């Protein structure tokens, strides 16, 4: 079952995120099971929202790639919930960032 994860990094900065993102290289070498990734600043930190094919796919990525690459000292607050529906309109997502 597909799941959505929300990771909130209290005190996280764009620079820390960019450092980890570069190290993980997910755009060139995406992890198995990742359907969607979004991230951005929130009050007091940084948040990432991912959609995964399953909890196990997220868990494998977290334990084998993300945690070993993390330079952020505190673990994020993680919330996960099962998806009842996932819909992606037929449009270029990059246009939403402008």
Q: What's the structural blueprint in terms of helices and strands?
A:
Elements: E1 3-10, H1 14-24, E2 34-42, E3 45-52, H2 55-69, E4 77-82
Antiparallel strand pairs: 1-3, 1-4, 2-3
Explain this structure.
The chain has helices spanning 14-24, 55-69; strands at residues 3-10, 34-42, 45-52, 77-82. It has 98 residues and is of the alpha+beta class. The protein has one domain (3-82): Alpha-Beta Plaits (2-Layer Sandwich), CATH 3.30.70. A hairpin with a 2-residue loop joins strand 2 (34-42) and strand 3. The chain is globular, with a radius of gyration of 14 Å. The model has no long low-confidence stretch (mean pLDDT 84).
């Amino acid at each position: 079952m597909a799941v959505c994860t929300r990771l909130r990094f209290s005190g996280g900065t764009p620079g820390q995120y960019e450092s980890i993102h570069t190290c993980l290289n997910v755009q060139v070498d995406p992890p198995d099971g990742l359907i969607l990734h979004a991230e951005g600043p929130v009050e007091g930190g940084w948040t990432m929202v991912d959609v995964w094919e399953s909890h196990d796919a997220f868990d494998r990525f977290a334990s084998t790639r993300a945690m070993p690459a993390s330079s952020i000292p505190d673990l994020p607050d993680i919330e996960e919930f099962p998806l009842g529906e996932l819909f992606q309109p037929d449009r270029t997502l990059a246009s939403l960032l402008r």
